[in-house]
Design goal:
This protein has one domain. Helices cover 44% and strands 0% of the residues. It is built from 3 helices and no strands. The chain has helices at 2-23, 45-52, 70-73. The termini are far apart.
Amino acid sequence: MKGIRSLILVAGAIVAVLFFISSSCKKKAPLIPIDNYHPNSITLQESCVSCHAPGERAPLKDTHPPNEDCFTCHKKQ
């Protein structure tokens, strides 16, 4: 009985995490363009922050949700 409760708790935690990730992308996020600034090989968030941080070439808008991982919402073309 105790094992079933633990399993239900773990399953609930997984569902909560997946819901949080999907809800952080409520509207369809723009695709990552393929251009000179966004090479097809871009895979690290640090590459995004170098241009999209405050005071950089293309800072994120104030309305942008907290960005833990850019690739959760933004996909490559």
